[in-house]
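Structure, all two chains, one model.
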Amino acid sequence: MTATLVPPPARHAGRVATVALARAETRLVLRSPLLWGGAVLSLALCTVTGWNRMPTWEAFARDAGMSSLVLAGALLLAGHLAASRDRRAGADSLEAVPTTAARRGAGLLALVLVGGAAGASVCLAGLLLMLPAWPVGRFDPWVLLVTVVVPATGAALGIAVGRWLPATAAGPLTLVAVAVVLAGLPVLSTGYDSVVWHLFPVPQAPWETGAARPTGWHLVYLLAVLAAVVGLLWLRYRRLIAVGVILAAVVASGIAIDQQVRATPKVIYEAMEDALTGPAVLTCQVHAGVRYCALPHYAAWIPLWRKAVEPVADNLPAAAARPTVRQLGGSDDGKPLVAGTPEIVTPIRWGRHGRWVEDSRTRLAVAYTTAATGLTRRAPAADVSCSGAGQHRTVVALWLLAQALPDGARRLADGELTLGLVRYAPADARAATALLSRPHDEVANFLAAHWAQVMDPASTALAPLGVTTMPPPIPTGDAPAASGAPGPPRVCG
Amino acid sequence: MSTVSIGGLSKRYGATVALDDLDLELGTGVTGFLGPNGAGKTTLLRALATALAADRGRLRLLGLDPAVSGQRTELRRRIGYLPQSPGLYPQFTAYQLLDYVAVLKELTDGRRRRAEVRRVLDEVELTDRAGTKVRKLSGGMRQRLALAQALLGEPQLLILDEPTVGLDPEQRMLFRSLISRLGERRTVLLSTHQTEDVGALCERVVVMNSGRAVFDGSPRELIAVADGRVWLSTTAPSGSRAYWRNADGLYRTLGDQPEGARPGQPSLEDGYLLLLGASARMGAQR
């Protein structure tokens, strides 16, 4: 051991020292497994939740927001451990350092920035993990900023609790208490326009798309909560300023919540829905004779729908009506965009990978096929199935679908092909298989020449092509069942 | 010139008097504080380190008054303090800990701070353990690390509360070597139960008992307290309990001469024990 005298190192007080301390705290928290664990878990939750469907800004904001709560929880614990580390270690030696407790509190606030940056990083990583897909829908920057403010608030709460209650158990207990309160908010809520509904940190979209969402005010509310928590920490050092900050934050959060309550309707009225998702606001494009109408900001999905529809539409004769593909965001009033034109509706969800995208495509192809062949008037219709058994148009629908879907012919032969809510008999499948074995042009030309006859529910127009199925008698109107007992399904008319 | 000036310093914990109207003037060099448990050594050192406010009295350290907020902060920039229980963060590495404490000591320039951390690690011979977590260091290494944090920033006043406790003889020798060198140009205040450390290191020794300084002088003067009061005999003295059998098989007695005993060579410990015995008697008479 040698004792050498060297010139005393340079010292800086005030802001520079606080910044240096904040940087030191940042370095420390960046080594925290809680931060990284929380970030990874948050990212995993966000990614897994939305993994199987094409991203939309509405769903992503909700998933990322909910996942940010996990990160906030981890940062609450990390913040508490950082703020209470002196007490935990019994670090008496730090009682005699020139850095005051207030400055140490200010230095710890670096964790708030780290929390915000971590939230933003997780959100960005969540978006990048969706590549090459990119969210559609209405981009709302305010709601995305929730993923920044929520983890920052978690860190601030951890620091504040750590300064006031440095016992090691206080951090986890606070986390549990906050989790219980948050879980209770939706339960206690009486509706979308209730105060409790809007207290939940992640804005829950009461209407899937289009409806006005006062997310800007929600962000103000969250920032006010963050300010109040920081004020709570500062109450230990600068009482008067802290009380002022807390009071201002409470007032601001009250105003923000009130504005949200006012801006959120309890129910969405028809006129409101029309204004948000009605025909006037749809983006419509015609491709290969098919009209596709997407909700605002969803036009990027039209190519996805085309992939499902065009294999069916390409085999339809020129005389066939081509149903409109319409995206629906709210409730279905059953009114087509153009009276007399068949229409199918598609939701604001679409599969993204593997079988999920196949499911979406199949569902739309089936809906388009049954609508194009007149088996359904609006597909998918209400939850009422009908029987198309024996009808020649059912055979045509199966023939069309078997060509449109991957491995369709085999699935038809194996009885795995479904027409959605339209039921068919094995004989219809056999007849469609027989049609498939004929030259495509022969069948296509026959359908082009006899489309109107084939579309008649009672028709046996395909007999020249060897189809021998016999349509059942077609009832006139929808006769009610004689009793409460379930009878045979309604015949598709 | 005194760097530490203490006048009428008092501190109570409820009914217990920790410091009782204490007056001291201390200068450059190593000063040792001896005393039994509860004598007030730690309270005094905590007050000197600005970690504790006294109830009454006057303190001036390095010309600054710790009771004044701005001067206290300035003073803390010039003090190195090793408390009895340093409480090092167990999950930090030795380097991280020193770097963090250096930041708290306002060494804000990153390059110079890192150099300072490396310097003190070198001083306490822990350079090769810089990346080891504190919880994995031995007790002696932790004590050296605690000393290293006190040395950060070249403090002019070094306050060490029982720095050699729990160290093996080799580590104590290393400590003594370092502290004696540090004391050449600084004021080092050292509290200890080890009279050997005081004898080896200190130019001045203050013996405390019941919050008062019952002795203030050089180690030689403390030894002199025992002159003519240390006795060696071949048989155990009767009527006295202040004796023990030493390695030579002789009975060493402090105080009055037992029958048949011959004078022994007094040590610092003898002086200290006799002083405390007298002090205790005086306290009982008071």
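Residues 282-286 of chain B have pLDDT under 50 and may be disordered.
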